[in-house]
Amino acid sequence: MARRKIIAGNWKMNMTPSQALKLVEELKPLVVNDDVDVVYCVPAIDIVPVVEAVKGTNVAVGAENMYVEDSGAFTGEISAPMLVDAGVKYVIIGHSERRDYFNEDDAFLNKKVIKAIEAGLTPILCCGESLEQRELGVTMDWIRLQIKSDLANVSADDVKNIVIAYEPIWAIGTGKTATSDQAEEVCKGIRELIAEMYDQATADAVRIQYGGSMNAGNAAELLAKPNIDGGLIGGASLKADFGKVVNYNK
Ligand code: 13P
Questions:
Q1: How far apart are the CA of 211 and the centre of ligand 1, in A?
Q2: In angstroms, what is the span from residue 153 Cα to ligand 1's centroid?
Q3: pLDDT of residue 236
Q4: For the whole model, what pTM was predicted?
């Protein structure tokens, strides 16, 4: 069964609402590709205007984060039902920037994954090793620990529909991309882990993205690998280049 590619932009903390609308208009004709799913994961304040602006296009909107409770006294947080009601379809969970700067640990991320699925959102679950871990040779041990903990108590049927993003920390925002072989090796390892934790059908269904300095120049080579089903793109998602990544196969 062929997995449909999914190309997602992670805007991070960029784009005011008015800048966001300009970017969506600029990208509109460039990101049309019936062969792939296209997602913009945008800052919370941009969600409502961007959902409105992409209506009638092939683009879905994702959030960059969410909280684990539905409502209540959690000043500053945004819940999964709020995102769903606003028209959001995806949510990034466990990006390395949230793990590092906001101390989000795997037990907390596991709660987020479960809550997102329960609400009807598709999690884009991120994992990835630091440069130090890669040099120590513990990349796959680390990623196995992250994925096993983050997917605790998640059923095979639910895992089939989530997206996993492999993002080596040393390749994020550094201009240093993992080689396509390095990226494929880990994405393959993640798929093998899913087969081990669940079954082959689940492993064959789950979509695994690569992220880390992916751009118009390297997307086609990365996406040609059998276990790389898409990209999670930071810097290059904020410019016309993103259209070239989406149309990597044209
Ligand atoms: P860059 O594409 O800017 O390296 O960011 C990758 C990333 O962190 C996407 O989530």
A1: 6
A2: 28
A3: 97
A4: 0.97
